[in-house]
Amino acid sequence: MSSRIAQSPSGAGVRPAAARLDAAAGLPARAGVGLKSQHFREVLDTCPDIGFFEVHAENYMVDGGPFHRYLGLIREHYPLSLHGVGLSIGALGPLDEAHLDALAALIGRYEPASFSEHLAWSTHGDVFLNDLLPLPYSEETLQRVCEHIDRVQNRLRRRMLLENPSTYVEFSASTLGESQFLREVVARTGCGLLLDVNNAYVSCVNHGRDVIAFIGDLPLDAVGEIHLAGFATDEDGAGAPLLIDAHGSAVDEAVWSLYAGVIARLGPTPTLLERDNNIPSLATLLTEAGRAEDIMSAPARRTGVVHRVCA
Amino acid sequence: MRPADATSQSDFAAALFDPSLDCPAGFSVWNGSDPARRLAVYRNNVIASLIDALAETYPVVQELVGTDFFRAMAAVFVRQAPPRSRILARYGQGFAAFIEQFEPARGVPYLPDMARLEFARVRAYHAADAEPVTHAALGLALASPERIAELRLVCHPSLSVIDSRFAVVSLWAAHQGEGDLTTLDPGQPQDAFVLRAGLDVLVLHAPAGGAAFVRALLQGRCFGAAAGAAAACAPAFDPATVLSLLTYHGALTSIYLPRRLAS
């Protein structure tokens, strides 16, 4: 089976050979956007100047057709981030080995520069819940999550990145903070952190926490990628703001500001603009990505915010 | 040892699908507000995202009954038959059968067949790739008439058949802006071939007997048996018409004579 189609898309400006070679080196320290099927043709026709594309692994667990055809062509020209949404690392049962096999097959086929998944559960028994559900942060969950990540990294023979979640409830069974839990996971498994700045903001607002302190307490040295997205605003039973990680709107100013602080601390870092609902034009996504690149290349921003994030 | 949060995940999962269940115990909320209000976010995420997945697979079904009706119907289905696969492109195969039994949808009798057709389209879109045989290869295979009945015709992995007592092909086309809905007779029986040609999914009006013919081929029966089955249910069946339609759209990927067993 060959997914690589030798023909080159029209348009120029990228170096076809380069994208393939750097697969093992991680994502480039640039901005990327999610690859959406409605943009397949436009991406090939216009070859936009963007650092990488990210896809949801499960969307490509199909036998053939346009998804594989276009991803194969686009992969010839861009680094790829493979982002799983269905592995259910936090679930009680063992990981689904067939799902791991499917991930391994995708990784073999497309040689992504990065594979990431979530600190969450999304299956119960054989039912797929299609949402990223929260975990109590206890020693017991910590052990289970670490065992699952060990299994993933052994099966896929690569380091994975684990994404911090957006949550709406916490558990009385939790004995660790989320940042402490993530530090432990990173230390015990050697996985990297996918720092979703929007998730950090959403969760901190939802649980009355200081987001700058929270981010500063994360294992920032392990960040391999950053996610930025938009949220929706609701309110809880007491009338306090309840932010929903909706991926359907532009990145909020508060999140941009946190992002600038993180970049000031970490330097340029692969950054994905996530949009899964109300998908706008490719041009709109690229404009948002451009803002992230501006922040990464602005030396003026390197000072000032550093200490706030490190606090 | 049973993990302490085993109960928590079971109760949580059950509460997501059953709005009549109380909010599970064990949540803590920083400001002391009602955890049920927060659980509602997860409940909504799960149900709404799965309804959205169905809406993406079944756009014409949704147009036929309207968004509100569709979403209410889909919500019943989602609670009754949540996905068993993490690959959402596969979700909703049972939707047509569900609609058939869904009393409020009885007013649109062709709704289940339209759902079948739309699921077949999604299936075809993601089906495995395969090189079609050419007209020339078909001609060559048909050139030795003494063994023509024994020929095996292998269908493209994307090909499926929808037979309907309703005009599903014309109805579907009308919802793509082709043809005229006002002059369309929904009671005209039509069969459909659904397949992918290159990157495009096609919905073709199957000629008389074509559905039975292709169904027999998909079961692995030889040309003669398939043609016999087709002629039995449609006297007007013309193998040349069906074969030419199938090869024109790349629906056959191999034609061969099985090796005769040595006697």
Which key features would you list for this structure?
heterodimer; A: 311 residues; alpha/beta; 8-stranded parallel β-barrel; 11 helices; B: 263 residues; mainly alpha; 3-stranded antiparallel sheet; two-stranded antiparallel sheet; 11% strand
Folded structure, characterized:
- The complex is a heterodimer of chains A (311) and B (263).
- Chain A is α/β, with parallel strands linked by helices.
- Chain A has 11 helices and 13 strands.
- Chain A has helices at residues 16-21, 40-46, 66-75, 97-110, 139-156, 178-189, 197-206, 211-216, 253-266, 282-297, 306-310; strands at 31-34, 52-56, 80-83, 114-118, 121-124, 127-133, 161-163, 170-171, 192-196, 223-228, 232-235, 241-244, 271-273.
- In chain A, the strands form 3 sheets. In chain A, strands 1-2-3-4-7-9-10-13 form an 8-stranded parallel β-barrel. In chain A, strands 5-6 form a two-stranded antiparallel ribbon. In chain A, strands 11-12 form a two-stranded antiparallel sheet.
- In chain A, strand 11 (232-235) and strand 12 form a beta hairpin.
- Chain B is built from 11 helices and 6 strands.
- In chain B, a hairpin with a 2-residue loop joins strand 4 (190-197) and strand 5 (200-205).
- The radius of gyration of chain B is 24 Å and the shape is elongated.
- The chains are: A alpha/beta (311), B mainly alpha (263).
- Chains A and B meet through helix 3, strand 5, strand 6, helix 5 and strand 8 of A and helix 1, strand 1, helix 2 and helix 6 of B.
